[in-house]
């Protein structure tokens, strides 16, 4: 499943990297004005084009996930930064027992040609925060290459609009007690065009999402605590620890 906003120039390259045995390709066109859907159809005649009602990557992923019909859903980007040849690693992690396989640029075997110093610092800080709050051991947080069994979708159920969506997926996987495997992935440079991400605006969205999910976690375990400034630790019925 590929979200694409004005990626007509990049799609020929990206679609050529998809494995020949790909079950289906769902592409969510975010109201592109550069012929993204036309190019997708030219280069991948069986593509299913989905339109999103709202705007933003989170909104696109929600629409795309709903349209997927396979047992496994793999999400990757349309700008040439993610390589379809890596899909088999993600699927292998799922077949080996993971519910959710998250790509990581910062574990052995991973890498990024694309990340700036500011983004690396923000990602590291938010990843540390998530690991503290949700007792995870993630090495990457804001990365768009991930995969999961369709059966995990109700637990992940993204309901946010923007670039905080990967964070929401990763946090919800932890909250739901899913078996999470990290898969090394190399992020390449976007080939053409400009990034839609604004580090400060979207960094704040990521931070808000992390804190909002924490509040929901406290709700879920059914214990009433004061959220503001609270320093509590609890274990829910499902063994989830919220701090
Ligand atoms: N459908 C849809 N796709 C989007 C939207 N915003 C971003 N995307 C796609 O989501 C993917 C990631 O967006 P990018 O703009 O590359 O953001 P990024 O990868 O964080 O930034 P760079 O690393 O600089 O490329 C790309 O495939 C975009 O085309 C949107 O509003 N709707
Ligand atoms: Mg990108």
Describe this structure in words.
The protein has 243 residues and is of the alpha/beta class. Helix content is 37%, strand content 15%. It is built from 8 helices and 11 strands. The strands form 4 sheets. The protein has a 4-stranded mixed β-sheet. A 3-stranded parallel β-sheet has the order 1-2-3, sandwiched between helices. Strand 2 (26-29), helix 2 and strand 3 (48-51) form a beta-alpha-beta unit. Helix 5 (117-134) runs parallel beside helix 8. The model is unreliable at 224-243 (pLDDT under 50). The structure holds guanosine-5'-triphosphate and magnesium ion.
Helices and strands in order, then pairings?
Blueprint: E1 2-4, H1 11-16, E2 26-29, H2 36-43, E3 48-51, H3 57-67, E4 72-75, H4 87-95, E5 100-104, E6 111-112, H5 117-134, E7 146-149, H6 153-156, H7 165-175, E8 180-184, E9 186-187, H8 199-220, E10 234-235, E11 241-242
Parallel strand pairs: 1-2, 2-3, 5-8, 6-9
Antiparallel strand pairs: 4-7, 5-7, 10-11
Helix pairs in contact: 5-8, 7-8
């Amino acid at each position: 499943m590929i979200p694409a906003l004005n990626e007509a120039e990049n799609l020929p390259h990206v679609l050529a990297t998809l494995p020949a045995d790909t079950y289906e390709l769902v592409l969510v066109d975010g109201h592109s004005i550069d012929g993204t859907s036309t190019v997708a159809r030219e280069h991948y005649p069986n593509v299913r084009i989905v339109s999103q009602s709202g705007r933003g990557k989170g909104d696109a992923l929600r629409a795309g996930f709903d349209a997927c019909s396979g047992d496994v859903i793999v999400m990757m980007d349309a700008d040439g930064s993610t390589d379809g040849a890596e899909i088999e690693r993600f699927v292998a992690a799922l077949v080996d027992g993971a519910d959710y396989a998250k790509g990581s640029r910062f574990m052995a075997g991973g890498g990024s040609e694309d990340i700036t110093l500011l983004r690396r610092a923000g990602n590291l800080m938010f990843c540390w925060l998530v690991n503290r709050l949700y007792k995870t051991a993630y090495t990457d947080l804001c990365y768009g290459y991930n995969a999961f069994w369709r059966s995990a979708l109700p637990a992940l159920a993204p309901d946010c609009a923007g670039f905080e969506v990967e964070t929401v997926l990763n946090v919800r996987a932890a909250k739901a007690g899913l078996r999470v495997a990290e898969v090394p992935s190399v992020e390449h440079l976007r080939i053409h065009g400009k990034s839609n991400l604004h580090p400060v605006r979207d960094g704040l969205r990521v931070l808000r999402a992390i804190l909002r999910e924490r509040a929901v976690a406290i709700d879920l375990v059914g214990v009433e605590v004061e959220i503001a400034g609270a320093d509590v630790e609890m274990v829910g019925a499902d063994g989830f620890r919220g701090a």
